[in-house]
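R.M. (postdoc): so does anyone remember the format we settled on? I'll just put the structure tokens first.
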């Protein structure tokens, strides 16, 4: 396995409300663990929400003695949601804070993914495929046939999300299980990347780059060159990087 992770404030923002965690080695009963979060809230509340949520998820995974990855991750996100809501109730400055989250672990040749919000996980090989499903107002409109993907990219409400950690007492997490191919590259990222760089350009950058560090660096650079309107976070994982010659 080969990986590289980076977060960048972007061109327009003064504060970075993104946060990530990446471990190629075991965390509790999971053989590896990768997380991306994009916080939201008032002054510093979004920054706190993303970091706090990831820290709570990692701690919960580390302590969980169960074996099923979906159960381990689901319990961790639910617990983090409860704790984030409790934090917001105790501190008025944190009222309304929340965060997106994407969590992934690779076991053998299977990828297990969880997401809440509009941060994404892609698999890139001969083509690029978004595995996660955005929980956003605009994406719901696309699914209902009220607009197409091209219109969605430019819609003024594209940043309104319909699910987030910390938003409601009861949280619904989407899960995906994917069989991996030896040539697959995994990309996890916040919308600071995907709002600035379309899927075709993402695929091109990943296809040209040979190493995860080069790929991530070039993705962040492209997002900033295209406007850098938001914080940008990306994790690239080559699950079978040592096997591909």
């Amino acid at each position: 396995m080969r990986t590289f992770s980076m977060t960048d404030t972007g061109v327009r923002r003064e504060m970075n409300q993104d946060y990530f965690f990446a471990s190629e080695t075991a965390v509790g009963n999971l053989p590896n663990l990768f997380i991306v979060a994009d916080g939201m809230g008032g002054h510093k509340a979004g920054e706190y929400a993303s970091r706090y949520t990831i820290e709570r998820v990692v701690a919960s995974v580390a302590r969980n003695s169960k074996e099923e990855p979906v159960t381990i991750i689901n319990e961790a996100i639910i617990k983090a949601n409860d704790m984030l809501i409790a934090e917001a109730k105790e501190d008025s400055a944190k009222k309304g804070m929340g965060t997106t989250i994407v969590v992934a672990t690779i076991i053998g040749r299977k990828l297990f993914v969880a997401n809440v919000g509009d941060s994404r996980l892609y698999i890139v090989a001969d083509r690029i495929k978004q595995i996660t499903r955005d929980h956003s107002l605009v994406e719901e409109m696309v699914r209902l046939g009220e607009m197409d993907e091209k219109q969605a990219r430019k819609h003024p409400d594209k940043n309104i999300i319909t699910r987030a950690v910390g938003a409601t007492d009861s949280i619904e997490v989407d899960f995906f299980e994917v069989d991996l191919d030896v040539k697959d590259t995994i990309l996890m990222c916040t919308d600071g990347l995907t709002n600035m760089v379309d899927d075709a350009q993402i695929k091109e950058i990943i296809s040209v780059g040979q190493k995860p560090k080069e790929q991530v660096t070039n993705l962040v650079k492209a997002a900033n060159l295209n406007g850098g309107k938001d914080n940008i976070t990306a994790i690239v994982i080559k699950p079978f990087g040592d096997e591909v010659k």
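R.M.: ...and that's the designed sequence above, right after the tokens. Also worth knowing: The domain at 2-238 is CATH 3.60.40.10 (Phosphatase 2c; domain 1). Helices lie at 45-63, 69-90, 137-143, 149-154, 191-194, 199-208, 212-225.
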